[in-house]
Design a protein that fits this description.
Blueprint (H helix, E strand, L loop, with lengths): L4 E2 L7 E5 L16 E3 L5 E6 L2 E9 L2 E2 L6 H6 L2 H5 L6 E8 L5 H5 L10 H17 L3 E13 L2 E4 L13 E3 L5 E3 L5 E2 L5 H14 L2 E2 L7 E2 L2 E12 L4 E11 L6 H4 L4 H24 L11 H5 L1 H4 L4 E8 L6 H15 L9 E4 L39 E3 L10
Length: 404
């Protein structure tokens, strides 16, 4: 029996999501999923189609079972998300084949129980913002939403359906990224209608197509970014934080998806950019002096998070179908590989007002979570996502809309 293939030692938190069978899968009553969580909630087994006698075992810090709700999934990352308000560059992204449930995990449906991580994160940010403002911090928050389609950046919050501008990625003196001519709009995170309007507008412009594997297949990577600044007048301190929430396009085999023409070109571009993301983590894992961030727009945009200065968490989504078992194996291996990568110490952006140097204190309720003696981030549980160790998860969207 192959394995075990363990992701137990990780530095990039990573949650792997196995969706349930959906009507379009054609599964019969009693069919056994090719990927099965074990009773311990930290491991799973996978069998390949045609090789039923073989099992591949993977271990993670947490495996979410099919009955787990969207809210329970989000509760595992809420502490990670809110660290953006402490002045950290935070990035969470979903990875997996097309149709594995990534968009359901990230965006969900509406703002109720089936909402995804993005609307849940906005709400949690609003709650934590209120706590910190009671301590004297004053926050300003703005959001942007873009997609990377065939290596072209598109503004998902633009006002017109036509006349899309050309967008380039610029590097600021502090190493942060700026996308030119991108809409960045103010957002009060407690305003549910404003949040819903942002999500609906982005969904309106997101590039999707129908394939043999997915009726609504995202053909681009989307990146939702919360830009925030805060000032504490009494202590004369200022901080800057950023939260990137990325819904990656799914990898696919052309033979299975049945696409041709422009859709085939899209698939090639998607697979190429995902391979580049893999190369970045391979280089980081080997501590190479040359990390290929510039190979794609996605990795170049996310370099501040992936390079070690920020905090990065990955969801790895897999399908339960036998036909997808080979892609599931590849995705789980990638998740385990990412888990081996040790990032540097996360750095918060906080300084005295009017000063260019960092330092000072973080908001009081989080002050003890990071200090100068914090070691490089390593594997662990979700109980300490804002400091080492970090983790791997397997989650399972539980709605008929779970397929991406």
């Amino acid at each position: 029996m192959p394995g075990p293939e363990s992701g137990a030692r990780c530095t990039t938190p990573s949650r792997n999501c196995v969706r349930p069978f959906l009507p379009g899968d054609g599964a019969a009553d009693g069919d056994v999923p090719s990927v099965q969580p074990k009773a311990d909630d930290v491991s799973l087994k996978l069998r390949l189609k045609g090789e039923e006698k073989k099992e591949y075992s993977f271990s993670f810090d947490r495996v979410f079972k099919p009955e787990i709700t969207q809210e329970e999934v989000f509760s595992e990352v809420s502490e990670f998300v809110q660290s953006a308000l402490d002045g950290y560059n935070v990035c969470l992204f979903s990875y997996g084949q097309t149709g594995s449930g990534k968009t359901h995990t990230m965006q969900g449906s509406g703002l109720g129980d089936m909402r995804g991580i993005i609307p849940g994160a906005i709400e949690r940010v609003g709650e934590y913002k209120a706590e910190l403002e009671a301590q004297g911090w004053k926050y300003e928050m703005r959001v942007s939403f873009l997609e990377i389609y065939n290596e072209t950046i598109r503004d998902l919050l633009r006002d017109e359906e036509i006349g899309e501008k050309k967008h380039e990625i610029k590097v600021n003196p502090d190493g942060s990224r700026l996308v030119t001519d991108l809409s960045i709009v103010p957002l009060e995170p407690t305003d549910k209608q404003a949040v819903e309007d942002v999500m609906n507008k982005a969904a309106k412009y997101r590039t999707v197509k129908s394939t043999n594997m997915n009726d609504v297949s995202s053909r681009s990577h989307s990146v939702f970014t919360l830009h925030l600044t805060a000032v504490h007048a009494e202590s004369n301190q200022e901080l800057k934080g950023m939260l990137n929430l990325c819904d990656l396009a799914g990898s696919e085999r052309l033979k299975r998806s049945g696409v041709s023409g422009d859709e085939a070109k899209e698939a090639v571009a998607i697979n190429k950019s995902l391979s580049a993301l893999t190369s970045v983590f391979v280089s980081l894992g080997s501590k190479s002096g040359q990390v290929p961030y510039r190979d794609t727009k996605l990795t170049w945009l996310l370099q501040p998070s992936l390079s070690g200065d920020g905090k990065t968490l990955m969801f790895c989504n897999v399908s339960p179908t036998d036909e997808s078992s080979q892609e599931s194996l590849s995705s789980l291996r990638f998740a385990s590989q990412v888990n081996q990568v040790e990032l540097g110490r996360a750095k918060k952006s906080i300084s005295n007002v009017g000063s260019e140097s960092g330092g000072g204190s973080t908001p009081a309720s989080r002050r003890s979570s990071q200090n100068s003696k914090t070691p490089p981030r390593r594997a662990g549980s979700s109980a300490s996502l804002t400091s080492p160790p970090v983790s791997s998860r397997l989650t399972q969207p539980t709605s008929s809309s779970a397929k991406k």
